[in-house]
Design a protein that fits this description.
Number of strands: 0
Mean pLDDT: 82
Order of helices and strands: HHHHHHHHHHHHHHH
Low-confidence stretches: none
Shape: globular
Helix content: over 70%
Distance between the termini: 38 Å
Largest sheet: none
Radius of gyration: 23 Å
Length: about 270
């Protein structure tokens, strides 16, 4: 087997297959988006970018994605802490349920939110009686984003907590440090790379979410119309240039986020 792996022909074929897979499934679709954006000229591209409805959808998506990311960083870190530091009945089940958003179709997630918080549900009806509407408003979009990005921070923080040297905490306690100080100066710095990296991945994923959001968003420009739903509407309206223009904004943001994550990981390895 080892002689087969070392064979130059086999190695060349393996590398070629990987490169073709990468080009066909990733590079070509991205180039297609950029090509369609400029297919009618730069003027048409600029006009699509400067469309007030398009910009409002992008800004709204950014705002709601930031809110969802902050919620996930806070809750995800707390859940990762509980799963690593405590033993309790049902821990294995809870740990397996963390990955449910990865396995569940996002449209099903949106339907779950709609049925749970919609006008005909108990929670939705109670919220309406208090003058607070959830579904088809921004809170439902944030909940959908939180649901689909829920595992990122947890799975990024868990291994860091597992690798944390207990002797450092014990030494801090021995020197008379309070639990809050131990957490802020010993534990938090060890968790922060996972919190930042997982938060960035959650933010990037929330920007592009469609399946869960489209079922609970009201699609009102400037209020509940997010970028992914706007792109879908432009495609349905036979305006691929407008859809591709907004897609480029999201693609660029995602590339920047991935680049920042890679930069942080490289600095973490060097330190």
């Amino acid at each position: 087997m080892n002689s087969l792996i070392r064979h130059k022909g086999w190695t060349w074929g393996f590398r070629t297959t990987i490169l073709l897979y990468f080009v066909v499934l990733i590079v070509l679709p991205i180039l297609g988006v950029y090509y369609n954006s400029f297919s009618l000229g730069i003027g048409s591209f600029v006009e699509s970018i400067m469309d007030p409805i398009a910009w409002k959808s992008v800004l709204l998506t950014l705002k709601l994605a930031v809110i969802a990311t902050l919620i996930n960083v806070l809750l995800g870190t707390m859940i990762a802490w509980v799963l690593i530091r405590y033993k309790f009945p049902g821990k294995a089940l809870l740990n397996s349920l963390v990955d449910l958003p990865f396995a569940l179709p996002t449209a099903v997630g949106g339907l779950m939110i709609l049925l749970l918080l919609g006008p005909g549900s108990l929670i939705g009806g109670l919220a309406e009686s208090m003058g607070f509407e959830i579904v088809f408003h921004q809170p439902a979009i944030v909940i959908a984003m939180v649901f689909v990005t829920f595992p990122f921070v947890i799975r990024a923080v868990q291994p860091l907590l597992e690798e944390l040297d207990a002797s450092e905490e014990e030494a801090a306690y021995t020197m008379g440090a309070k639990p809050s100080r131990v957490f802020l100066q010993v534990i938090l710095p060890s968790m922060s790379p996972g919190m930042i990296g997982g938060g960035m991945l959650a933010f990037s994923r929330a920007l592009a979410e469609f399946g869960a959001v489209v079922l609970v968003a009201g699609n009102i420009p400037g209020r509940t119309l997010v970028s992914s739903v706007f792109i879908f509407g432009e495609v349905e309206s036979d305006n691929p240039v407008g859809a591709a223009a907004v897609s480029i904004i999201l693609l660029t943001l995602s590339f920047l986020i991935l680049w920042l994550i890679s930069l942080l990981q490289m600095r973490g390895r060097r330190s």
